Amino acid sequence: MSGSLNRPVRRRTFVLGSAAAAGSAAPAGPLAESASAASFGWRDDGSNYVVDTGANLVFKVSKTNGDLTSLVYRGTEYQGYGGKNSHVESGLGTSTVTITQSGSTILISVAYGTLRHYYAARSGENNVYLWTNKADTSVSATRYIVRVKAGLFLNDEPDSYTYAPTTVEASDVFAKSGGQTRSKHYSKLRVIDYDHIGWNTGSVGLWIVRSNHEKASGGPFYRSLLRHQSADGGGLYEILYYGENQTEAQRFGLQGPYVIAFTDGGAPSSSLFPGTLTTSWADSLGISGYVAAGGRGRVAGVGITGRNTAYPYTVGLANSAAQYWGSARSSDGYFSIPGVRPGTYTLTVFKDELAVHTTSVTVTPGTTTTLNTIAIPSSNDPGNASAVWRIGDWTGTPSGFKNAALMTYAHPSDVRASSWTGNVVIGSGSETPSFPAYIWKDVNSGLLVYFKLTAAQAAAARTLRIGVTTAYANGRPQVTVNSWVSSIPSPPTQPSTRSLTVGSYRGNNYTFTYSVPASAWLTDVGQYNVLKIDVVSGSGTTSYLSAGTSIDAIDLLA
Question: Cα–Cα distance between 158 and 147 in angstroms, integer?
């Protein structure tokens, strides 16, 4: 027997294959198979550690592999679909699983090679706190997935895979009978946009509250898997590293806490959200890689000048070990980023998603690094340059272009997408919404822009700029102005995976510049000059998987 419940301090360690583990018997009592909440404590049923939070939640963790094998809230089992448990990645395999109770906290530790994973319960709470420490590439651990039984939640969200009969691309993008597309990749939300994700019936809510993503990669604007729903159940994700259209190397170390939270229908408590969640109760639990609040610092800036107040600004911190971010106040640019691990970081100021300033900052434990007003040089923002004409805004996103908003949660072939053609006339007043957000070699290459120049404007060479946010298969623009043809530019560094078809335009922002000679312009001021934009690349396949690129802005400088 593992011991009676509710003693102030319980410390018990089991190693798989040991006599203690093999000989454990399941006791009767308040944590027997009854689904109703009892007093706070745990027991060993022979195969699992069974934890009762003393509220309305009872959960089980396998002693063999650390899977979450049962999740019972108010008497209903939520765990499991397709015969699968909730777990790190797709399950770790044989692991060393131990349990410790210290007063009002129970901690289950899972060791698998160099990976450490943890579950914690607090007395009286309907929450499961989780941490995952991936130390290196020897263990595949890029997500935690909560697998939920079918039929408990209705879900056909635009940012979620829903079972659909027709495969559109690979084995992970599907079309419903009406032509709408679904994929687990279509997260819609950027990391900066959400604190929690989940489902709600009106009387029960099941959520994952994300971690602060300090050991994730991709920055504040990255999109990764959130949830999916299939015929046999659904899944909620906390992504520890997602490689699709990833711009950064993988970071290693402890991620968390992230939280599985049950509610009586509403959103989870904001006290669980990243930036507000305090876990001083975990400081002494011995979690590998854990840094308490006292071992962290803060970065604060008194303001940012040189901003275009029509756009939001974000301040990011990043080095090879961690990443953080915070929003700049719209009135003066003040920002504060708490909970930062010690170290030296690159600080980046983003206008929307476009980096317009960088500097270096060092963070020390227990202190606030205060920065004087940051001045963004005018030349750092391409939107400040005077232009003869401009399509789109320099924001680091394709926002405003045709189909741009839809593409974060749909395939380009989706029935809701407007035609990917889109020749435009400068001065029409609808240039940006008429111009496609994406251009592919095999779909809509050769888009045309018609524009007139005054005699003075046509008398000089001018710079044409095309800003892109990512590219697939080295797709990049070659331009023709009337009879003048540019050289083929070299491809910038971009992620090598799919992007435009899996809901992501977030790559490495890059600006192509073309020096157009005066001889290229038409001398008759009443004639339209014609700019042709082709996508060139020897890579890619066909259709929407041919070489392509996402547009940020296009302009002809004055």
Answer: 19
